[in-house]
């Protein structure tokens, strides 16, 4: 008799963004004339940069000729892309990461969910609270957690590290020692960033306890302050305790193209095994690699033209972030984030719950955001807005909110 993975049954009814989509669709059906502005899901809105489009066209043309046709991509990614990543994202920042330690994939979301597969089920997981849902959900699916507690909006057997307003939305070291520690900076959803000094403390902690840090740096391109590290490998000793996830979705607009990579240093050893070898085996067995055309587009991100064009796009989104931050602050809202990340984290007014404010904002201002409680218990009473909309829509949405 066929059985199912009952760990999936521990998950709450639906994924956060699916619930939002259903609510918005229902409202739109009832109010077809209202123009809804979406500042919820972190999807980009600007078209791909010209340098990337040119590279895509060139790669497509290559696929039309026998002598330049490409089939399956190498398991770990094409050398031309891995070399570009190593040189630009790491060597240029003084980080000792070789191309052989870079694994190209179809995105950071996939890798953040899949990386847990190389670890034993008995490992104790620590996450920030609030947190990107994928980290917890995939560990639930794997059977690494206990049951879900609806009253507390958390799972048994998970170490939650509260990120509250009074601690700058940064986690503190947990009382119980974890095995796997998920960190995301600049942070989704709060927009908080961590200084190099504070991050170094986490690296030292992991090396001391034997934990492994899974570091999500998907939003590093939005960092504006000099004392904020772009990679965990800027910290001494990170090669022996940290895995880093990166994405082309937010820095280059690849949400519809799909490309990312994970760095696993060869010096990272646990339980007598080099984690690099485990991830390489998993990668080769369960992933065919991002297509040649997409990897050529990724290479163009690091060209001189690509860097200049993408800086313009990032500046565009960060101008939106400034509009949101300053507009809401001037309107009397309590806000944070938006300086080193394209997310603004606001406290819901009048003691509204996160979902109450969602409904209120949709009904009164026709603006969609993301309820903070969807990211964890400590997100209750907070709300996330994204800077990834168009500038015109962003300005109008904040004007509507300020008028409430």
Please characterize this protein's 3D structure.
This protein has 404 residues and is α/β, with parallel strands linked by helices. 36% of the residues lie in helices and 15% in strands. It has twelve helices and 17 strands. The protein has helices at residues 16-30, 50-62, 79-90, 108-114, 133-142, 196-209, 249-252, 275-286, 292-301, 304-330, 354-364, 391-402; strands at 37-38, 102-105, 125-129, 148-149, 154-155, 158-162, 180-184, 212-216, 242-247, 260-263, 269-270, 273-274, 335-337, 343-347, 367-368, 370-371, 382-386. The strands form five sheets. It has a seven-stranded mixed β-sheet with strand order 2-10-9-8-7-3-6, sandwiched between helices. A four-stranded antiparallel β-sheet has the order 13-14-17-16. Helix 2 packs antiparallel against helix 9 and helix 4 runs parallel beside helix 5 (133-142). The longest helix is centred in the C-terminal third of the chain and has 27 residues, at 304-330. The chain is globular and about 60 Å long. The model has no long low-confidence stretch (mean pLDDT 95).
């Amino acid at each position: 008799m066929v059985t199912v993975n009952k760990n999936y049954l521990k998950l709450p009814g639906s994924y956060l963004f699916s619930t939002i989509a259903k609510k918005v669709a229902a409202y739109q059906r009832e109010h077809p004339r209202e123009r809804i502005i979406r500042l919820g899901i972190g999807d980009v809105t600007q078209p791909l940069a010209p340098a990337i489009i040119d590279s895509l066209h060139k790669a497509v043309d290559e696929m039309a000729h026998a002598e330049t046709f490409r089939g399956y991509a190498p398991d770990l990614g094409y050398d031309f892309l891995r070399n570009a990543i190593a040189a630009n994202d790491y060597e240029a920042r003084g980080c000792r990461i070789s191309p052989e330690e870079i694994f190209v994939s179809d995105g950071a979301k996939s890798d953040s969910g899949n990386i847990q597969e190389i670890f034993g089920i008995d490992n104790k997981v620590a996450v920030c609270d609030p947190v990107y849902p994928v980290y917890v959900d995939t560990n639930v699916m794997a059977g690494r957690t206990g049951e879900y507690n609806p009253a507390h909006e958390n799972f048994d057997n998970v170490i939650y590290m509260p990120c509250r307003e009074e601690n700058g939305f940064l986690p503190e070291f947990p009382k119980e020692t974890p095995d796997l520690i998920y960190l995301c900076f600049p942070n989704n959803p709060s927009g908080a960033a961590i200084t190099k000094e504070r991050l170094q403390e986490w690296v030292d902690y992991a090396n001391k306890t034997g934990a492994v840090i899974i570091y999500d740096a998907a939003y590093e391109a939005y960092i504006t302050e000099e004392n904020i590290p772009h990679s965990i490998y800027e910290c001494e000793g990170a090669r022996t305790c940290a895995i880093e996830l990166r994405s082309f979705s937010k820095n280059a607009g690849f949400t519809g193209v799909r490309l990312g990579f994970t760095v696993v240093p060869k010096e990272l050893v646990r339980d007598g095994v080099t984690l690099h070898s485990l991830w390489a085996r998993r990668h080769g067995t369960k992933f065919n690699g991002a297509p040649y055309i997409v990897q050529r587009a990724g290479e163009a991100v690091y060209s001189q033209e690509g860097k200049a064009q993408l800086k313009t796009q990032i500046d565009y989104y960060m101008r939106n972030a400034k509009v949101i931050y300053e507009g809401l602050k001037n309107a009397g809202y309590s806000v944070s984030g938006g300086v080193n990340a394209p997310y603004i984290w606001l406290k819901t007014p009048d003691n509204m719950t996160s979902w109450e404010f969602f409904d209120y904002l949709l009904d009164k201002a026709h603006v969609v955001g993301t309820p903070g409680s969807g990211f964890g218990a400590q997100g209750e009473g907070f709300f996330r807005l994204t800077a990834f909309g168009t500038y015109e829509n962003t300005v109008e949405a904040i004007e509507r909110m300020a008028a409430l």
